[in-house]
Amino acid sequence: MMEQQNYQYQNDSVFVNQNTVSKKFFASVFLWMFVALSLSTITAILVNNMPGIEALLRNPETYKPSTLGYIVTFAPLLLAMLMGAGFSRFSYTALLGVFVLFSVLLGASLSSILIFYELGSIAICFVAAAVIFAVMAVMGYTTDVDLSKFGPILMAGVIGLVVVSIINMFIGSDTLGYVLGFVGIAIFTALTAYKVQEIKRIGEGLDENGNEIALADSKKLALMGALSLYITFINLFLSLLRVFGDRR
User: Fold this and answer.
1) Interatomic CA distance for residues 225 and 29, integer angstroms
2) Where do the domains of the chain lie?
3) Which residues contact 79 (CB under 8 A, 6 or more apart)?
4) pLDDT band at 6, cuts 50/70/90?
5) DSSP H/E element including 59
6) Residue 52: its pLDDT value, please?
7) How many CB atoms lie within 10 A of CB 209?
């Protein structure tokens, strides 16, 4: 009888420990996402207040991005790819440095929306994105439906959306941009639930014994999870702004 009680106690302890590790990992992901959002917001405001920044980032006659504008626009994408490719080789400190740099450069890239959109519509679209993101995050965390089967479809949609968006940067079609906005809203709304469920499963799969290797990896995984969710949120926000934002 005593052995059975000890066995039950050990099982309960393992379950509680594993559940705690999973919740800490999940909380860490959203904490780093908030840090990234804060860094980008502060950078966007500071860059927007720099004298002559609009002329540096865009051609004043054609309103197309300048060379520096293209660098600022695509640098965050390259850094995100660098984080993914260097995950196993980079130390946690190095990965954190790239993550912070990504957030700052993305903020510099997003500073242009403060130039071309009304502050009121930016605020409304941001709140709408936050609400949609929160609802889909809860849905992804609580649903029993396996969303992994939708992953390849959603990622194919993201790739197609990125390719067409890059092409439209050179074409400058307002109609195509409007259509891409609606497509983006649908894709990134669904992608939020998918990614949150994926991150939840990563947390549940962490080593229940919490050994040193698992803890070190969990910190890097939290950064990658935050990066993934942050990119999804920003793209949802930009898609909403593209459709419903009022230009100056």
Assistant:
1) 6
2) 2-244
3) 98, 101, 102, 105
4) very low
5) none
6) 66
7) 10
- Considering Cα of 36, then 38, then 42, then 48, what sign does the dihedral take? positive
The CA distance from 119 to 248, in Å, is 9
pLDDT band, residue 170 (cuts 50/70/90): confident
How many residues appear in the chain?
248
Query: Residue ranges of the alpha helices (H) in the chain?
Result: 2-48, 53-57, 67-85, 92-110, 112-116, 119-142, 151-171, 174-204, 212-244
Instruction: Please report the pLDDT score of residue 11 as a whole number.
Output: 45
- Residue 52 φ/ψ region, left for φ over 0, alpha for ψ in the -120 to 50 degree band, beta for the rest: left
Give the other-Cβ count within 10 Å of 200's Cβ.
20
Phi, psi of 188 (to 5 degrees): -75, -25
Crossing angle for the helix pair 212-244 and 174-204, to the nearest 10 degrees:
160
- List, for residues 90-144, the tens digit of each pLDDT value: 888 888 888 998 899 888 888 878 777 888 889 999 999 999 999 999 999 998 8
Close Cβ partners of 125 (under 8 Å, ≥ 6 residues apart):
237, 240, 241, 244, 245
Q: Is 184 exposed, middle or buried (0-12, 13-18, 19+ CB in 10 A)?
A: buried
Look at residue 58 in the predicted model and tell me its pLDDT: 66
Question: Is 133 in contact with 236 (CB distance < 8 Å)?
Answer: yes
